Amino acid sequence: MTSDTPPIVLTFGIFDPTGASGIQADLLTLASMGCHGVSVLTGYATRDSVDHGEITAVDPDRVATQARMLLEDMPVAAFKIGATVRAEIVSVIAEVVADYDDLPLIVCPDFTLDEEHVLAGDDLRDAIAELLAPQTSLMVADRAMITQLMQSDGESENDGEPVTQESVIAQLTDSGCEYLLLTENTAGRYINTLYNEEGEIRQDVFAREAHSILGIGDTLASAIAALLASGYEPPDAVREAQNYVYQAIRASFRPGMGAHIPNRMFWSRGDGAPGIRPVSGMLADINPPMRQHIRH
User: Fold this and answer.
1) Domains and CATH numbers, the chain
2) 3-class secondary structure per residue, the chain
3) 120-136: pLDDT as tens digits
4) What pTM, to 2 d.p., does this model score?
Protein backbone atom coordinates (compact mmCIF):
# COMPACT_ATOMS: atom_id res chain seq x y z
CA MET A 1 0.00 0.00 0.00
CA THR A 2 1.39 3.40 -0.98
CA SER A 3 1.34 6.39 1.34
CA ASP A 4 -1.48 8.04 -0.59
CA THR A 5 -3.81 5.01 -0.37
CA PRO A 6 -6.92 5.87 1.66
CA PRO A 7 -8.04 3.55 4.48
CA ILE A 8 -9.79 0.49 3.05
CA VAL A 9 -13.07 -0.80 4.50
CA LEU A 10 -14.58 -4.14 3.53
CA THR A 11 -18.38 -4.13 3.61
CA PHE A 12 -20.69 -7.16 3.43
CA GLY A 13 -24.26 -6.49 2.32
CA ILE A 14 -27.00 -6.73 -0.24
CA PHE A 15 -27.33 -5.03 -3.61
CA ASP A 16 -30.10 -2.43 -3.39
CA PRO A 17 -30.99 -1.18 -6.90
CA THR A 18 -32.26 2.14 -5.50
CA GLY A 19 -28.96 3.03 -3.82
CA ALA A 20 -30.86 3.73 -0.60
CA SER A 21 -29.23 1.03 1.50
CA GLY A 22 -26.91 -1.94 1.26
CA ILE A 23 -23.57 -1.92 -0.50
CA GLN A 24 -24.36 1.13 -2.65
CA ALA A 25 -25.07 3.20 0.47
CA ASP A 26 -21.91 1.92 2.14
CA LEU A 27 -19.63 2.69 -0.79
CA LEU A 28 -20.98 6.23 -1.20
CA THR A 29 -20.60 6.89 2.53
CA LEU A 30 -17.10 5.46 2.69
CA ALA A 31 -15.99 7.55 -0.27
CA SER A 32 -17.55 10.66 1.27
CA MET A 33 -15.64 9.97 4.49
CA GLY A 34 -12.30 9.65 2.71
CA CYS A 35 -12.05 5.83 2.57
CA HIS A 36 -11.93 3.28 -0.21
CA GLY A 37 -14.73 0.74 0.03
CA VAL A 38 -14.45 -2.84 -1.18
CA SER A 39 -17.48 -5.10 -1.02
CA VAL A 40 -18.79 -8.63 -0.80
CA LEU A 41 -22.34 -9.30 -1.95
CA THR A 42 -24.58 -11.34 0.37
CA GLY A 43 -27.77 -11.02 -1.69
CA TYR A 44 -29.62 -8.85 -4.15
CA ALA A 45 -32.96 -7.13 -3.97
CA THR A 46 -35.71 -6.56 -6.50
CA ARG A 47 -37.25 -3.30 -5.35
CA ASP A 48 -37.87 0.40 -5.93
CA SER A 49 -38.21 3.34 -3.55
CA VAL A 50 -41.81 2.38 -2.75
CA ASP A 51 -41.80 -1.43 -2.59
CA HIS A 52 -39.28 -3.43 -0.56
CA GLY A 53 -39.71 -6.35 -2.97
CA GLU A 54 -37.73 -9.56 -2.61
CA ILE A 55 -34.23 -10.58 -1.52
CA THR A 56 -32.30 -13.46 -3.07
CA ALA A 57 -29.24 -14.81 -1.25
CA VAL A 58 -25.79 -15.40 -2.72
CA ASP A 59 -24.15 -18.79 -2.28
CA PRO A 60 -22.26 -18.76 1.07
CA ASP A 61 -19.11 -20.29 -0.43
CA ARG A 62 -18.96 -17.48 -2.97
CA VAL A 63 -19.24 -14.96 -0.13
CA ALA A 64 -16.29 -16.52 1.70
CA THR A 65 -14.16 -16.86 -1.43
CA GLN A 66 -14.64 -13.25 -2.47
CA ALA A 67 -13.90 -11.94 1.01
CA ARG A 68 -10.67 -13.91 1.33
CA MET A 69 -9.51 -12.83 -2.12
CA LEU A 70 -9.86 -9.19 -1.12
CA LEU A 71 -8.24 -9.68 2.28
CA GLU A 72 -5.25 -11.48 0.79
CA ASP A 73 -4.81 -8.69 -1.75
CA MET A 74 -5.45 -5.46 0.20
CA PRO A 75 -4.71 -4.10 3.69
CA VAL A 76 -8.28 -3.80 4.96
CA ALA A 77 -8.56 -1.48 7.99
CA ALA A 78 -12.14 -2.25 9.14
CA PHE A 79 -15.20 -4.41 8.43
CA LYS A 80 -18.82 -3.34 8.13
CA ILE A 81 -21.57 -5.99 8.03
CA GLY A 82 -25.13 -5.18 7.00
CA ALA A 83 -27.83 -7.56 5.75
CA THR A 84 -26.58 -11.14 5.76
CA VAL A 85 -29.83 -12.77 4.50
CA ARG A 86 -29.17 -16.36 5.68
CA ALA A 87 -27.63 -18.07 8.70
CA GLU A 88 -25.20 -19.94 6.43
CA ILE A 89 -23.83 -16.63 5.16
CA VAL A 90 -23.41 -15.35 8.72
CA SER A 91 -21.41 -18.48 9.51
CA VAL A 92 -18.90 -18.04 6.69
CA ILE A 93 -18.51 -14.31 7.38
CA ALA A 94 -17.88 -15.03 11.06
CA GLU A 95 -15.12 -17.46 10.10
CA VAL A 96 -13.49 -14.91 7.82
CA VAL A 97 -13.51 -11.98 10.25
CA ALA A 98 -12.30 -14.21 13.11
CA ASP A 99 -8.98 -14.44 11.29
CA TYR A 100 -8.67 -10.63 11.50
CA ASP A 101 -9.76 -10.03 15.07
CA ASP A 102 -7.46 -7.01 15.41
CA LEU A 103 -9.62 -5.04 12.93
CA PRO A 104 -12.73 -3.08 13.96
CA LEU A 105 -15.96 -4.92 13.14
CA ILE A 106 -19.09 -2.79 12.79
CA VAL A 107 -22.39 -4.67 12.54
CA CYS A 108 -25.73 -3.20 11.50
CA PRO A 109 -28.02 -6.26 11.70
CA ASP A 110 -30.82 -6.65 9.20
CA PHE A 111 -33.16 -9.63 9.41
CA THR A 112 -34.28 -9.34 5.77
CA LEU A 113 -34.66 -12.84 4.37
CA ASP A 114 -34.60 -14.18 0.85
CA GLU A 115 -37.85 -15.54 -0.57
CA GLU A 116 -36.94 -19.20 -0.22
CA HIS A 117 -36.02 -18.93 3.45
CA VAL A 118 -38.81 -16.92 5.01
CA LEU A 119 -39.09 -19.47 7.83
CA ALA A 120 -35.42 -19.18 8.75
CA GLY A 121 -35.66 -15.98 10.79
CA ASP A 122 -34.76 -17.61 14.09
CA ASP A 123 -31.74 -19.31 12.52
CA LEU A 124 -30.52 -16.00 11.12
CA ARG A 125 -30.94 -14.17 14.42
CA ASP A 126 -29.30 -17.00 16.36
CA ALA A 127 -26.33 -17.03 14.00
CA ILE A 128 -25.77 -13.28 14.34
CA ALA A 129 -26.11 -13.45 18.14
CA GLU A 130 -23.85 -16.46 18.57
CA LEU A 131 -21.25 -15.95 15.83
CA LEU A 132 -21.02 -12.23 15.03
CA ALA A 133 -22.05 -10.36 18.19
CA PRO A 134 -19.17 -11.77 20.29
CA GLN A 135 -16.68 -10.44 17.69
CA THR A 136 -18.33 -7.06 17.21
CA SER A 137 -16.50 -3.84 18.00
CA LEU A 138 -19.64 -1.73 17.61
CA MET A 139 -23.24 -2.59 16.73
CA VAL A 140 -25.81 -0.13 15.38
CA ALA A 141 -29.39 -1.24 16.10
CA ASP A 142 -32.71 -0.17 17.57
CA ARG A 143 -34.39 -1.69 20.62
CA ALA A 144 -36.63 -4.04 18.64
CA MET A 145 -33.63 -5.31 16.70
CA ILE A 146 -31.47 -6.13 19.71
CA THR A 147 -34.40 -7.67 21.59
CA GLN A 148 -35.07 -9.99 18.66
CA LEU A 149 -31.38 -10.64 18.32
CA MET A 150 -30.68 -11.58 21.92
CA GLN A 151 -33.98 -13.11 23.05
CA SER A 152 -36.44 -13.72 20.26
CA ASP A 153 -39.07 -15.24 22.58
CA GLY A 154 -39.36 -11.99 24.60
CA GLU A 155 -38.42 -13.63 27.90
CA SER A 156 -35.13 -13.81 29.71
CA GLU A 157 -33.30 -17.09 29.56
CA ASN A 158 -32.92 -17.42 33.33
CA ASP A 159 -36.17 -16.62 35.10
CA GLY A 160 -38.89 -16.11 32.50
CA GLU A 161 -39.27 -12.42 33.40
CA PRO A 162 -40.12 -9.97 30.58
CA VAL A 163 -37.07 -8.54 28.88
CA THR A 164 -36.11 -4.95 29.71
CA GLN A 165 -33.99 -2.70 27.54
CA GLU A 166 -31.29 -2.71 30.20
CA SER A 167 -31.18 -6.51 30.41
CA VAL A 168 -30.93 -6.90 26.64
CA ILE A 169 -28.13 -4.33 26.40
CA ALA A 170 -26.28 -6.06 29.24
CA GLN A 171 -26.74 -9.43 27.57
CA LEU A 172 -25.33 -8.10 24.32
CA THR A 173 -22.29 -6.38 25.85
CA ASP A 174 -21.63 -9.36 28.12
CA SER A 175 -21.58 -11.59 25.04
CA GLY A 176 -18.50 -9.75 23.75
CA CYS A 177 -19.94 -6.85 21.76
CA GLU A 178 -17.76 -3.92 22.87
CA TYR A 179 -20.11 -1.04 22.04
CA LEU A 180 -23.79 -0.69 21.17
CA LEU A 181 -25.22 2.40 19.51
CA LEU A 182 -28.92 2.16 20.28
CA THR A 183 -30.97 4.18 17.80
CA GLU A 184 -34.49 5.50 18.40
CA ASN A 185 -36.70 7.18 15.83
CA THR A 186 -39.35 9.06 17.78
CA ALA A 187 -41.80 11.83 16.95
CA GLY A 188 -39.69 14.76 15.87
CA ARG A 189 -36.36 13.37 17.11
CA TYR A 190 -33.59 10.86 16.52
CA ILE A 191 -32.14 9.68 19.84
CA ASN A 192 -28.88 7.72 19.70
CA THR A 193 -27.32 6.30 22.88
CA LEU A 194 -23.90 4.68 23.05
CA TYR A 195 -23.30 1.89 25.58
CA ASN A 196 -20.47 -0.40 26.58
CA GLU A 197 -20.20 -2.97 29.36
CA GLU A 198 -20.03 -0.18 31.95
CA GLY A 199 -23.29 1.38 30.81
CA GLU A 200 -24.26 4.54 28.95
CA ILE A 201 -21.41 6.62 27.51
CA ARG A 202 -23.17 9.37 25.58
CA GLN A 203 -26.56 10.31 24.17
CA ASP A 204 -27.22 12.56 21.19
CA VAL A 205 -30.57 13.97 20.10
CA PHE A 206 -31.17 15.29 16.58
CA ALA A 207 -34.17 16.88 14.91
CA ARG A 208 -36.11 14.38 12.78
CA GLU A 209 -37.32 15.09 9.26
CA ALA A 210 -41.06 14.68 8.70
CA HIS A 211 -40.69 12.44 5.64
CA SER A 212 -39.63 8.79 5.51
CA ILE A 213 -35.93 8.23 4.83
CA LEU A 214 -34.33 4.95 3.78
CA GLY A 215 -30.82 3.77 4.57
CA ILE A 216 -30.05 5.71 7.75
CA GLY A 217 -28.73 2.65 9.62
CA ASP A 218 -26.34 1.56 6.87
CA THR A 219 -25.14 5.13 6.41
CA LEU A 220 -24.44 5.56 10.12
CA ALA A 221 -22.69 2.19 10.46
CA SER A 222 -20.47 2.70 7.41
CA ALA A 223 -19.59 6.24 8.53
CA ILE A 224 -18.47 4.82 11.89
CA ALA A 225 -16.47 2.13 10.08
CA ALA A 226 -14.75 4.80 7.99
CA LEU A 227 -13.75 6.78 11.05
CA LEU A 228 -12.51 3.73 12.97
CA ALA A 229 -10.48 2.76 9.89
CA SER A 230 -9.03 6.29 9.96
CA GLY A 231 -7.85 5.87 13.56
CA TYR A 232 -10.68 7.42 15.61
CA GLU A 233 -11.58 5.94 19.00
CA PRO A 234 -15.14 4.50 19.07
CA PRO A 235 -16.84 7.28 21.10
CA ASP A 236 -15.26 9.94 18.87
CA ALA A 237 -16.14 7.99 15.73
CA VAL A 238 -19.76 7.75 16.88
CA ARG A 239 -19.95 11.48 17.56
CA GLU A 240 -18.52 12.50 14.20
CA ALA A 241 -20.47 9.86 12.25
CA GLN A 242 -23.74 11.05 13.74
CA ASN A 243 -22.99 14.63 12.75
CA TYR A 244 -22.20 13.49 9.21
CA VAL A 245 -25.40 11.45 8.98
CA TYR A 246 -27.50 14.28 10.38
CA GLN A 247 -26.21 16.58 7.66
CA ALA A 248 -26.85 13.91 4.98
CA ILE A 249 -30.42 13.53 6.27
CA ARG A 250 -31.01 17.28 6.20
CA ALA A 251 -29.92 17.27 2.55
CA SER A 252 -31.94 14.13 1.68
CA PHE A 253 -33.70 13.92 -1.65
CA ARG A 254 -36.62 11.99 -3.15
CA PRO A 255 -35.45 10.30 -6.37
CA GLY A 256 -38.71 8.46 -7.10
CA MET A 257 -42.26 8.12 -5.86
CA GLY A 258 -41.34 6.63 -2.48
CA ALA A 259 -39.05 7.50 0.41
CA HIS A 260 -36.24 10.02 0.59
CA ILE A 261 -32.56 8.98 0.53
CA PRO A 262 -29.73 10.61 2.53
CA ASN A 263 -27.47 12.77 0.39
CA ARG A 264 -24.17 11.19 1.36
CA MET A 265 -22.25 13.67 -0.81
CA PHE A 266 -24.06 16.70 0.61
CA TRP A 267 -20.82 18.65 0.97
CA SER A 268 -20.16 18.52 -2.79
CA ARG A 269 -23.29 20.58 -3.50
CA GLY A 270 -22.08 23.76 -1.80
CA ASP A 271 -20.50 26.85 -3.26
CA GLY A 272 -17.60 26.34 -5.61
CA ALA A 273 -16.53 23.28 -7.55
CA PRO A 274 -17.36 19.96 -5.91
CA GLY A 275 -14.45 17.96 -4.65
CA ILE A 276 -13.28 15.62 -1.92
CA ARG A 277 -12.32 17.33 1.32
CA PRO A 278 -10.42 15.78 4.23
CA VAL A 279 -12.60 14.14 6.86
CA SER A 280 -11.50 16.60 9.54
CA GLY A 281 -12.30 19.63 7.41
CA MET A 282 -15.65 18.25 6.34
CA LEU A 283 -16.76 17.40 9.87
CA ALA A 284 -15.77 20.82 11.19
CA ASP A 285 -18.53 22.36 9.06
CA ILE A 286 -21.30 20.18 10.47
CA ASN A 287 -23.85 21.57 12.88
CA PRO A 288 -23.99 20.09 16.40
CA PRO A 289 -26.95 17.99 17.54
CA MET A 290 -29.91 19.44 19.39
CA ARG A 291 -28.61 17.98 22.65
CA GLN A 292 -25.67 15.89 23.86
CA HIS A 293 -25.12 14.05 27.10
CA ILE A 294 -21.70 12.55 27.78
CA ARG A 295 -20.94 10.42 30.82
CA HIS A 296 -17.86 11.55 32.72
Assistant:
1) 8-294 (3.40.1190.20)
2) CCCCCCCEEEEEEEECCCCCCHHHHHHHHHHHCCCEEEEEEEEEEECCCCCCCEEEECCHHHHHHHHHHHHHHCCEEEEEECCCCCHHHHHHHHHHHHCCCCCCEEECCCCCCCHHHCCCHHHHHHHHHHHHHHHCCEEEEEHHHHHHHHCCCCECCCCCCECCHHHHHHHHHHCCCCEEEEEEEECCEEEEEEEECCEEEEEEEEECCCCCECCHHHHHHHHHHHHHHCCCCHHHHHHHHHHHHHHHHHCCECCCCCCEECCCCHHHHCCCCCCCCCHHHHHHCCCCCCEEEECC
3) 678 899 999 999 999 99
4) 0.88
